[in-house]
Amino acid sequence: MVRKIEIKRFSLTTSKQFDVPKIVRLLIGNELIMKEMAKHVADAGSYAPVTVLVDEPADGVHFSYDKMTSLLAPYENREALEVARDLDRKFEDLLRHAATARRPSDGQAGSNPKVRVADED
Length: 121
What we know:
Elements: E1 6-11, E2 22-29, H1 31-40, E3 50-56, E4 62-66, H2 68-72, H3 78-100, E5 114-118
Parallel strand pairs: 4-5
Antiparallel strand pairs: 1-2, 2-3, 3-4
Helix pairs in contact: 1-3
């Protein structure tokens, strides 16, 4: 089975004139995962796709996102939370891989990335 992941990119900084970090907002989602969560908690559809903020301040690259388990915890639905936990694991693995992947231009590993996770647990 082919699983489709959709990624939308939004640049939040447009000018190098200002002393602001480079910021990009990514919306990343898979319809099948969202449908599985929404099957148990209909409101889960309002949290998909996952938003990842990538910013590059002076100290390196930061990835920030809200854990799906934190967003769905108030609904106290075991099945939806299990799907959310699996999604959170996949996202953390994906972000860590992206942060440490070699850049094609010079073959060097990425900078010292920080992954910030908003979590209420």
